[in-house]
Amino acid sequence: MNRPERARTIALESPSLVGDVGLRELMAVREIAQAFLTAPRAAGVYQLALDRVSPLVGATFACVYLIDGTSDVMRLTAEYNWPERYAKFLGDMRVRVGAGPSGQAAANRRIIEVPDVFADASLQDWWEVATELGFRSLVALPLQAADAVLGAITFYFASSGAIPVEARGLLRVVADQMSATAEKARLIDNLQRSNAALKTTNVELEKQYAALLEARRLQDEFLSNVSHELRTPLTAVMGYLSLMEEGLAGPVTAEQQNTLTQVKSSSERLLEMIGDLLELTSLKRGELAVNLTEFDPREALKEALHSATGRREGVALVVDEAPASLPIMHSDRRKVSRLLAVILGNAFKFTPQGEVRVSVQARDGCAVYRIADTGVGISDAAQRFVFDEFRQEDGSATRKYGGSGLGLAIARRLAQLLGGDISLSSERGKGSTFQVELPLKLTK
């Protein structure tokens, strides 16, 4: 069917089946529509349509061609009553879009009708094929969706002449129904391919996620082990430094004393960082126990103010007076004090001048601690990761403010361990405000 050929086209009027088709035609249309709704495979609908409609319109045999993927070739998808001797070749039948009546119907999106192949000398190339297969006329209808041509359906007739108006209407309805079936099949196929791809992607993501969790576990385990191994000898070094400062290892000059003080200070900072690593690792593993006691929320803040370091000269510390009485807090006092001290230390560190203001109040069953500074502030971009471990807004080696980037990560995990959380409001160059909300009554 893919030989070069010419065919004259006849525009068909819109189908009107009401009162024009018999009971058999209506039943056929109903069966095809029902198959469209219920058939698990599109091929079953195509075959049913050909089997039911071809005898009604007097077709000797018929074919459904669908475009193969994104190519311009249509493959035979369903057939009716082809001569038995051609059965083994039908699976290989292909028609190029634009070639022959079927190809022209798909390419031009219109019905192509050839009333008599032998009546026109220009169709001589088709005479041998028509004689061999036993047809004299044919009609090809496009199968199309709103945005694409899906293929064509072609009916072949043993006699010549234009098909009756009633048959044209029936064929048009069938073509529309089969177009809907082809579109439905295409959508289902696309969905199945997408689902398969999604499943594959999910499997890969699950593998990557498992690998990431394992990598994080190994990282935490490594940090914990290394921190333990470093802390022991470092503690011993600091002990020897203290002995040297006291002169127990011999006289110490003023210059040596100054050097020892600097070495001891650096060792203390290193020991503090190792302690932070161990604390963060314990928090991530869920190894820190919560020791519940009853205390005044103001007492935890006082302890944090006493232990926080890093306040610079010229930076005012303002403590807003709390209400005359606050509810007793039932939580882990040491951990509350610890997380507040971390946030205070962070405020002191990034406030070269101005003030740091702190307050505490009770609201909605929570102790609300507020720590505001007039420091350098945090950009909108950095606020998204400021509570992540090992992260700072300026992560370069030449950054102005040092530190490991663990403090705020520890503070948030402590707050969450105590049933609360920390919120941040900041603007670059205008300071930051951290608000800690912790339940007054924590239950394990």
Molecular structure report:
- It contains 10 helices and 13 strands.
- With 444 residues, the chain is an alpha+beta fold.
- It folds into 3 domains: 170 residues, Beta-Lactamase, CATH 3.30.450; 80 residues, Orthogonal Bundle (Helix Hairpins), CATH 1.10.287; 147 residues, Heat Shock Protein 90, CATH 3.30.565.
- The strands form 3 sheets. The protein has a 6-stranded antiparallel β-sheet with strand order 3-2-1-6-5-4.
- The two termini are 80 Å apart.
- The N terminus is likely disordered.
Shape type: elongated
What's the tally of helices?
A: 10
CATH architecture term of the largest domain: 2-Layer Sandwich
Q: Radius of gyration from the CA trace?
A: 42 Å
Major sheet details: 6 strands, antiparallel
What class, by secondary structure content?
Answer: alpha+beta
Major beta sheet, strand line-up: 3-2-1-6-5-4
Taken together, the total number of domains comes to: 3
Distance between the termini: 80 Å
Total strands: 13
- Mean residue pLDDT: 80
Q: In the CATH hierarchy, what is the class of the largest domain?
A: Alpha Beta
* Beta-strand content bin: 15-25%
- How do the helices and strands follow one another from N- to C-terminus? HHEEEHEHEEHHEHEEHEEHHEE
CATH superfamily of the largest domain: GAF domain
The CATH topology label of the largest domain is Beta-Lactamase
Q: Kindly state the percentage of residues in helix.
A: 40-55%
